[in-house]
Amino acid sequence: MFRKVLLVDDDAMVITIYERLITVSGFASEVIAKNNGEQAKEFLLQNKPCLPDIIFVDLCMSVMDGPEFIRWFEEWQQKDNIQIPVYVLSSSMSAYDYNLISKSRISGFIVKPLTARYLKEITAKHLNKSQHFLKLC
Fold it and tell me: In Å, how far are 48, 81, 94 from 91, measured between CA atoms?
């Protein structure tokens, strides 16, 4: 379905597992992994001609956390007229975290772990060009 995924998470084990899940399931053929929001920002700015088709970003990271990255990304996306769906990945089910993120223009909030079932739901949403917010937990 998707060609390239940008995966932003500071846990190396999570990255390894999710890279395998994403490619083996056929969700995407390529996964670009970055350890924090700052690295993801630099990657996007340097690779504008070949941007990812979808972004998964962890909520809690050092350097630039998920909410800070999303604020920057939304401004950049609007300024440069770029449309990339963003899904937040979080081990937190806190109402505070969910409310903080749901006010942004992200495509969905996923309580970890990311699963093949969640990837199927995301694929269905984008195949149907649905604009509804996905909350997967």
Answer: 30, 31, 9
- Give residue-wise pLDDT tens across range 124-134: 998 888 777 77
- pTM > 0.90: yes
Domains of the chain: 2-136 (3.40.50.2300)
Name the residue among 85, 94, 92 with its Cα closest to residue 121: 85
86-107: burial string, b at 16+ Cβ within 10 Å, e else: bbbbbeeeeeebbeebeeeebb
Distances (CA, A) of 29 to 3, 50, 92: 5, 14, 28
54 by DSSP, 3-state: which?
A: strand
